[in-house]
């Protein structure tokens, strides 16, 4: 009989921490209370976590879209540089680049450079050899800096790994009904957003290094919509991570910041 009674008391203490809690059982009650809260999440809290996760997923989607496209940088020759009816322009991203040949007659007369890339024309796309043979690419007699290009690509890949890790943490928090995984998820999403933004800066430096490698061919350059996607993704991921930090706090920030208003109501 004593064996079963001891087991019952230990089981109750481990699950809800109410056995033996009186005026002097504060420590055991606090431990049990924490264990109870870990296994119970309100519907409103779960809804807030799902909403913050949706924001983070938008950032992940924008990152994948930007990384998978080759419109990070656009390089355009003057449209009359070749002296014939065609001109050339190039656009490239982290993994491959494309050189397009366009008809000068299709270009806006007020535009001095070749483009935009959406115009009909011939396209020749090749993957960079930074990751295989380690060769630099040559675009319009200008040579890339493979170290900078590799650094930008590696930073982008590391950010993706952190996004996956953060998503797994949120999935575990929702499935198990605990808030413990919100803080590591917030860390992963914020750091991934920072890495994405740093990768844009490194890529921009690689573009400047490419342009300074040779000056025989004048080029107009600009960062294109893929960079806009990745930049928006970085800001969205950081914002989503901050939301997870707020949701992981044991108190409501609004009640903490506005105590007089709450007491008046």
Automatic annotation (TrEMBL):
Keywords: Membrane, Transmembrane, Transmembrane helix. GO terms for molecular function: calcium channel regulator activity. The keyword Cytoplasm does not apply. It is a multi-pass membrane protein. The keyword Transmembrane helix applies. It is found in: Membrane. It holds the Pfam family Claudin_2. Gene3D superfamilies: 1.20.140.150. GO terms for biological process: regulation of calcium ion transmembrane transport via high voltage-gated calcium channel. The chain crosses the membrane at residues 51-75, 150-174, 186-211, 223-247. One of its GO terms (cellular component) is L-type voltage-gated calcium channel complex. PANTHER family: VOLTAGE-DEPENDENT CALCIUM CHANNEL GAMMA-1 SUBUNIT-RELATED, VOLTAGE-DEPENDENT CALCIUM CHANNEL GAMMA-6 SUBUNIT. This is Calcium voltage-gated channel auxiliary subunit gamma 6. It comes from Cynoglossus semilaevis (Tongue sole).
